[in-house]
Amino acid sequence: MKKMTLEICSGTTCYMLGANNLLNIENEMPSELRGLAEVRALPCMGLCNDKELSGAPYVKLNGKVIEKATPEKIYDAMRALIEE
Amino acid sequence: MGSQLFVEMESFQLTKTGQAACGDDIQYKVLKDENRYLAVLSDGLGSGVKAHVLANMTTTMALRYLQSNMDTLQSVETIMDSLPVCELRKISYSTFSMIDIRLGGITKIIEMGNPQYIQLRGTEEVQPLKHETIVSKYWPDRQVECYELKLEPGDRLIVCSDGVTQSGLGEGPQYRFGWRRCGEMEYAQERISRNPSISSYTLARSIAYKAYGISQNICKDDISCMVIYMRKPRVMRILTGPPYHKEHDNIFASHADLGEDHTIICGGTTANILERIVDRKVQIDLTKLKLSDKLPPAGRLPGVALVTEGILTLTRVCKALENNESVEDLPTAARKIIEMMLEHDKIEFVVGTKVNEAHQDPNLPQDLELRRGVIRRMCAALNQNFRKETEITFF
C-alpha cells in the first residue's frame, strides 16, 4: 500500500487549538498504523478563515481535510483509508 | 549605515556554580553625539548577590565618571571610597576595566585588578600606544593600569574577569596557573582564524564556555567575557505579514533578501506568499521537534535563514528581549530569532498589517496582540537593551 500523506497545519490558530498535540503523532500512533503515513507540518493551510469549516486544528490526510482534528479522528480516518 | 563603522559590544557571563547571582557586572553606554562608546566590566569581591551589588555599583559609577571625563585617579579613588565594606573581609573591593572608545581618535582603557585586555587585529596582537601605571596615595596597594590605543576597522578588544584567565587553576600540570591570558588569547586567535567575521557575542560565549570546560564544567568563579569588534554593520530583515492589501504581496515579498540568509519569515501566511515567489515549499523537520517548546516548530525555505510561526513566536521573542532572558532556555524558534538578532547590528522589520480574523476568536486560549504593537515593543527593547538599530516599514 502506498504511504498516506498526513499534513498538519502548524499556523497560529491551529497550534493554539490543538495542533501542538498532533505534531508528535508519528511517534504516538498505535502500532498497526505506525509507518503508514508520511507526516509533515505546514506553516499555514489558510483554512482557519473558511466559514464553511467547523474549526481548527486542521489536518489533511491524502488531501482530505479533517476539521477539529484529534489523534483519534486521524487514526479513524487512516483506518478507513486502509479498509477502502 | 553603508560604509559607517559599527562598534559591536557584546558579552557572555556564567555564574559561579551554586550562586543565584553573577558577581561580575558589565554595562555599556553609547554617546552618539560624541562618537564615543563606553564599556565597564567589574568583578565584585566574593561571589553571589553581595559581589553583584559591589560590581554593579562599580560599573554604574565608572560609566558615569567616564562619560563626564573625570580624572582617572579621582574616579578610581571615589569608587573605592564609595563601596560598602565587606563584614567578613573588612575591606571594600572590586576590580574593573573601563573602556572609552572614541571613533577616529584614541581609545583609553583603565584597569584595576582585572586581567589585561587583549587587542587583536585579525589574529595578531596589537600593543598599546602608551601604558602607564598609577598608584593612589590613599589606596597604595591598588595599581591602576592606563592604556592608550588606536582601534582600526576589523580590530577586536577582549576583556574578561579573572574567572576566565584563572579557570582550570590546579587542574593538572597544564593549568598549574590556570588558563591564563595567553591561553585565552590563543583560543581567541584560533576561533578568529577559523571564522574571521565571528561576532562579538559568539566569540565571548565561546571563550566563556571554553573556560568553563577547562574547569571540568564547574564555575569555580563567575566567568565574564566582553568582546568589542569594530566592523562594517550587518543588516538583517524580518518579514511578518501579510500586507493589508493583497495586491502588495509581491512588493512586500521583494523585501526578502533572498539568497543571503539574512532574512527571517515570521508567519504562516507570510511563508505562503514567499513559497509562491520562490516556487518551493517550507520544510519543517519534525524529527527535531521539542515537545517542551510551547511554540510551533521553525522551518526552512531556500534563500531565507528561517521560517517561523508569527504572533506567538514574535510575542515570546519580545518578552525575552524586554526581560533580557537567557537564550539557552528559550523555545527553539524564539532562540534562533534572537541568536540571529544578536549577530546583526541593524534589524529591519517589514510588517504587513492585515489582521487575521481567526485570531480574534474568543475561544483561543490566550489573547493575541496586534502585530504592529509587538514589533514596536520589540524595537524599543532592541534599542535599549541590545544597542541595535531598528527600522519598521508597514505594508
In short:
The complex is a heterodimer of chains A (84) and B (395). Chain A is an alpha+beta fold and 84 residues long.
Structure description:
The complex is a heterodimer of chains A (84) and B (395). In chain A, 26% of the residues lie in helices and 21% in strands. Chain A is α+β, with helices and mostly antiparallel strands and 84 residues long. Chain A has a single domain (4-83), classed as Glutaredoxin (3-Layer(aba) Sandwich), CATH 3.40.30.10. Chain A has a four-stranded mixed beta sheet with strand order 2-1-3-4, with helices on one face. In chain A, a hairpin with a 2-residue loop joins strand 3 and strand 4. The longest helix of chain A has 13 residues, at 71-83. The termini of chain A are close together. The mean pLDDT of chain A is 95. In chain B, helix 1 runs antiparallel to helix 2 and helix 4 (180-194) packs across helix 5 (200-214). Chain B folds into two domains: 6-231, Phosphatase 2c, domain 1 (4-Layer Sandwich), CATH 3.60.40; 235-394, Rossmann fold, CATH 3.40.50. In chain B, strand 13, helix 7 and strand 14 form a beta-alpha-beta unit. Chain B is elongated and about 75 Å long. In chain B, 31% of the residues lie in helices and 25% in strands. Chain B has ten helices and 16 strands. With 395 residues, chain B is α+β, with helices and mostly antiparallel strands. Chain B starts with 5 loop residues before the first strand and ends with a strand. Classes of the chains: A alpha+beta (84), B alpha+beta (395). The interface between A and B is medium-sized, with 23 and 29 residues.
